[in-house]
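Hi everyone,

Forwarding the result from last night's run.
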Amino acid sequence: GLVHSTYWAADPESKLTRDGLIVGTPEYMSPEQAQGLALDPRRDLFSIGSVAYFLLTGKEPFHRETAMKTLLAVVSDEPKPLRELNPFVPDDLAQVVMKCLAKEMDQRYQSAHELEMAFAHCRHADGWDEENATQWWATHPVSEPGTGTDVNGLPLRSSVP
């Protein structure tokens, strides 16, 4: 859940996501969500960081062999540095993403606006526009139409020796 419907506000018992209940994709859950703790909007910033990490590396930051091991990794393990998997990620962008993935909510960005400002202040943020995006997608391989970039065709470092 990155969004909640206001429809469910009239009957909170009918929501799927509740305190103490774990619902979602383990690879993209925040530590507090993985532990069934009380949630606030900063958990979504953690999930955005997880998505950004995947987009930049082609790998989930906490994926393990089983859902339970993944949840434990979300709670206790640090992800590999982004630049270890993709050396082409600018340092400032990597720092923004890694701050989103902080285990403690108080160490993350405190609002979506704060995160937006951090992304906007990245060195290359002003050079990325629709024309550049179109050109980038036109020059990068895709595995099948509509499935996005085949990251295996990109010059990324494998996490497996």
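Helices lie at 31-34, 42-57, 67-76, 82-85, 91-100, 112-120, 130-139.

Cheers,
N.
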